[in-house]
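Support reply, case 0932

Customer input (verbatim):
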Amino acid sequence: MLPITYAIRNLFRDPGRLFQTVGGSALVVLLVIAAIALNHGMEEVLQTSGSSTNVILVGAGSEESVERSEVHLDAEAAAATAVPGLARPLGSTAASGEIVYMAPLKLEGGQEQPSLLRGVTEKALLVHNRVRLLEGSFPRPGQVMVGRLLHRRFGVPAHDLAPGKRLSFGRTAFTISGVFEASGTVLESEAWFDRNDLSTLTQRDTLSAIYLRLDDAEFDDVHVFTLQRNDLELSAIREDRYYEKLSAFYAPIRAMIWITTALVGAGALFGGLNTLYAAFASRIREMATLQCVGYTRRALLLSFIQESLLATLSGSLIAFTLALVLLDGRSIPFSLGTFTIELTPPIILAGLATGVALGTLGTLPPALRCLKPSLPVALRSS
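Our regenerated output:
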């Protein structure tokens, strides 16, 4: 087997080829890491947002979108009293009628972004038990409480949405009363208003949904309630199931990310193959000479792979560095909320596997073609 120093020296024989190989592999590995991280981040935040102990009552036919749902105001009290076995923290039934509305919010500085607004009462904290107030207080009339990641949607520092700042919806300005967190759920990118305020501003006399938290009750108990009260025209869906459906809705977007990554990766791979074909073709006589002095074709093939792996793994190292600087910890807003990109060990391993695959599979065709000619033919090649 040839010494590793031979492969290292050959890397620097053509600086232009080395730059293309390292740069191309860095681009492909970075794109793979970004695609996996984006898909994982979006899927993770949607899975985390739903709770298996919560049930959502929506208007019949609106199971796929709470925002389009309309539920009569009387349904909140009816569900709280008629469904047995609901959770009763602090002696209050965990039933929260809420208005969910997508509309643009405007900062004092003039930035305006579409945001998810939620009109709530204090009972919302009994159902959304992951919500924790970080600073300030629950919103009263004329106030709004914001999730800790809402500022990322506007692209401004967190202190621009601190308690005491102003946030406008339409022509009405609200004072920010507090900031809350919700353990990596989509709630962290929402703005919570007093329910009566949001009802007045959106000119609606119905709720979007009623959120119930189960204790001894089961989902079938809630489902039976919706069947018994045909006059309310309700449909029940588990909260975790609701977010699973939303995750499926975003599947085409995640597929487009993979398709884009595959196209760019294929372009970089074919460009690299062309470069290697040209580079290895000029070394046919050199390989034949090494065979004459006793090295086997297998040893020469391993040397080619070593040479290529050194270049692609160097590119992978650059990609990991760029990913840590540019991607890790970055919050990405989407229509429902915001998710945070995290470079977990499986994602790093996937990037490493991509670099190894580029260095081995991408090298085999040109290397085998270089070693294919017989010794007499190879020694006469120019």
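We compared this against your earlier run and they match. Two observations from our side: The CA atoms of residues 270 and 362 lie 9 Å apart. The chain has a mean pLDDT of 85. Please reopen the case if you see a mismatch on your end.
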